[in-house]
Structures are given as structure tokens and as C-alpha cells.
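QA checklist item 7 of 12: single-chain prediction sanity check.
[x] sequence parsed
[x] length recorded as 117
[x] structure emitted
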Amino acid sequence: VQLVQSGAELRNPGASVKVSCKASGYTLTSRYINWVRQAPGQGLEWMGRIDPEDGGTKYAQNFEGRVTFTADTSTSTAYVELISLRSEDTAVYYCATSRIPGTEDYWGQGTQVTVSS
């Protein structure tokens, strides 16, 4: 299993960002894709997950209304889009697979998102 994420992004406050996570070595629909972020000096923060088989999503309460997960089975790629960015969204964003909710096993390399004017 390999997850390869898109490159670093720099955005102004109020903008949006979309990060991709391309999966290989397994069938995308066989595992959940979770999104987790880590702000500077902070621990890991779970943002939510998507079931690529049916597109079903679960969002952590802190991100409801500001984040959208999607998955393209034709390209084995999952995406997270975050809108209305603020400086507190500066973090490294990770995708991670899990067979069972809460048991992330394979991780992408991380994508640095910096929000700054």
C-alpha cells in the first residue's frame, strides 16, 4: 500500500485549498481514507474519513461545514478541500487508510499547507 500526496501549498486567509492522496497497491474501495492534520507544536487531529466505496463521509465536529472529502475511484485518488482558510489551519495534512474506523494503518507522506498573508 502506498499513498502519495500532492505538494506543499501556500494560501492567503479566506482562500481554499485542495490536497490529493493517490493510492496504489490496493483497491481504493477496500479501505476508508482518513484525513488527519498536525499543526506546529500540536498533536495529530483527526478531521474525518470517507468510504470510497459509496462516498459516505464522516466529519469531525470542528470541521463540519468547512471541509469536504471526495474520492475518484477511476484514478484511485482521494481529496480533501478546506475553505475559508485561517492561520490556524497551517499544518501538515495527512491521508491514512483504515479497514476499521479508528485504526489508521498506512499513511501518506504529508502535505504542508501554510496560510499566511
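[x] summary fact logged: The chain is about 0% helix and 55% strand.
[ ] second reviewer sign-off
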